[in-house]
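Anyone able to model this chain together with biotin?
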Amino acid sequence: MTNRQTIKHLTQTAMVTALIIVLGFFPGIPVGFIPVPIVLQNMGIFLAAELLGRKYGTIAVGLFLGLVALGLPLLSGGRGGAAIFLGPTGGYLVAWLLAPMLIGTLIKITRAMTSGYWWLEVGIVWLAGILFVDVIGASWLAVQSHMTLTAALLSNGAFLPGDIIKGTLAVFIARRVRAIVDFGLPA
Ligand code: BTN
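re: yes, here you go
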């Protein structure tokens, strides 16, 4: 890869990190029965994976989480600080870091971007961006909040309708953006 391409990828990565930050300006919506809000910010994680792929998607999310860990108030509701990673939402944040790697790997294995089957891309985001994140998030929530795993998993059902809409929208937005901007991914 040339220097020029690397600079281009890093610029695009920084822009996606900025997008994740902007999505955090929308305040979280409390669900009441668990201390985990409905957020828009996870749509930025889906977009990072869909636009940047495994490597740069992980860097974009890692950069965002690194800034949060340093104490910048970038999570929905203006929260930040390393302690958040040990709080009730810590599992979701760790899963956010892993999601672009998983989504990108599944997209590569299935050749979802080159196949033209948009539903394959949507299915991958649902599986690795929603289900995977919810299972990891709920598992840590169960430990942290002294709930049963079943109760934690079931309570995550509250996120599904919104996440399915966000995940599907992210795929369609990313497909349109990729048609205009070269992210160095398969067409
Ligand atoms: C935080 O701001 O501390 C992280 C919030 C994590 C929210 C999770 S992500 C998956 C699920 N979908 C949502 O809308 N909320 C939860």
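The domain at 3-180 is CATH 1.10.1760.20 (Arp2/3 complex 21 kDa subunit ARPC3).
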